[in-house]
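Following up on my earlier thread - several people asked me to post the actual chain instead of describing it. Fair enough. Here it is, all 388 residues.
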Amino acid sequence: MPDPLDWIDDELTALDAQHLRRGLVTREGPQDAVVTVGQSHNLINFGSNDYLGLAADRRLNDAAAIVAQNEGWGAGASPLVAGRSLSHEQLERRLAEFKGAEAGLVFSSGFAANVGTVAALVERGDAIFSDANNHASLIDGCRLSRAEVHIYRHADVDHLAELLSATGRYRRRLIVTDALFSMDGDLAPLPQIAALAAQHGAMLMVDEAHATGVFGQRGRGVSEHLGVEDAIHVHMGTLSKALGSTGGFVVGQQKLIDWLTNRARAYVFSTALSSPVAAATIAAIELVQSESQRRWQLLDRAGELRERLSAQGWNIGRSCAQIIPIYLGDAEQTMDLAQTLRGCGLFVPGIRPPSVPTGKSLLRISLTWLHTPAMLDTLLQALAAERH
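Reply from S.P.:
Thanks for posting it. Predicted structure:
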């Protein structure tokens, strides 16, 4: 009898031919500036989103350990049933305070937060206006909502304005955008987008996943950095990047949080985050506020690295953050260069379709506060050798 899964062999062979097949790699030890990945040893790690270097911070570990003794580890149920612990409640309140909002809601992941929130806000008969470069979680949320989706060209407010003007018949309209784009390292033009949302009576949801803790005077994100926090209706972020923890969140008006509590399926039907995770995240928020030098030093180093990469002749696009792409286009060339850098003791991920469109493959340099000037010099020297 033939195996019903035989088709997978052919599909995997096709991925191999296109240099698009992925494999799992295992990291030994904590997330740090130097890691062991797969068969390689002591690689300088430019693949982590641990932007402030908190993922292995002992203070987070200590906070988690104390609460684990008092509240246990597993949540046991969804937050609406029996899974919401005291630490979980404290985290949601602390996130709202941190972001200057009335209330907050914690999801099991940033992906779940985006998928659940978008699909709870709009449905069939409504319209979504989504940046072409938005994260996959926003894209999937748009698809699951069953609303009509209008894609505007990346960061193109004129195109967004055209689409909004041409689509006035919908019951509800929602604009969704990343604040800091995860592959390109550029910022959304939030002031102009917010003005369009107000003009057309649309809801505005902003994903601050890669900007929370890094941008803004208080680390609240690009919306704070650009002075438009009050114009945004739905603030989304993750706990798993600069905050060094795991999970996702949404903050906003109390009525928004009440609605998501009842209608965001990714929240309603997911087991709650564990209490130790919540406690570690609260500790991380405190560090974001008390050790602001981490984000300023990170952004200063990122600016210097961008200048030096551009001077070498690499195409880094419009990056203005700690995420720095090196655009190569071809998937095979991208993966070859990533492998060459690994041979030099550097872990710099190659990004290929479907993570980026065909012909847009790139190396993604993710800078963290833990990277030293010597580490950056090593990266630049290895890349300079490839330009000759």
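The two ends are 56 Å apart (CA to CA). That should answer part of your original question.
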